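Q: Structure tokens for this one, please.
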Amino acid sequence: MDEIFGIKRDSYDMYEELLLKRDQLEREASSIRISYMKEFGDLITEDYNLKIECIKKKKTIAYCQQSINKGQVLDMQVIDASITEDMKIYYAELEQLSHDFELAKNSKTSSASNAERAKKIYRRIAKRIHPDIYHQTMEHEELKDLWERTFSAYHMLDPDELADIEVLINKYLKGLGEDSFEIDIPDIDKRIEKLEAEISEIMRTEPYIYKEILDDENAVSEKKNEFKAEIEEYKRYLEELSGVLNDLLTEGGATFIWKMD
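A: Here is the predicted structure, written as tokens:
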């Protein structure tokens, strides 16, 4: 019996450590993304803006060419309305990029001591109420809210907020009784495999892999040059498309109307 309990204990310890490691990597990935946007956000936004302008111009050409081929009068107001509808998703993505860039620019970098303190407090809290260990956490509205605040404060590396939350958690758990929450992790070996897969996925995908670029000044410089080169390419392409559209409207035999408000 003691041997079986020992195996279960080892599995639980591994599960707990992997759980904390995954959460730490997710926080690091979030921080890396912010740093990446702070470093390249202006170029990324300009690049994407030019990209969607090229897409918009190509769509305009396609709509006009289609109408010309059918011998139809070009109603530019209708064409603009159709293209605007088509482009909604692109402009939404551009707005999100701009928003992320502004957040990154205004974000504050936590000191190493604050980061370490936040990590320690988070580990203490996670070992007590992490919902992947203690499913009862999600059954108590106040505790659920405290966990969500914990996760948010950890991502912001805010040790003072985490310390306050820990006090509230201790008070709440004391009110419930220290033994109220029991560990119940069915299929723990499968959960361990799943966590290992999640950790591997985080470490080999964006934004975590941006770390290699951010840690290398030469790589940062090269990446900026790549963005700048692509921006210039989009500018040339946009100018070329504008010429094609102009030729189509002036020499393509098109008849078009503009409705004025």
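A few notes: The chain is about 80% helix and 0% strand. The longest strand covers residues 74-75.
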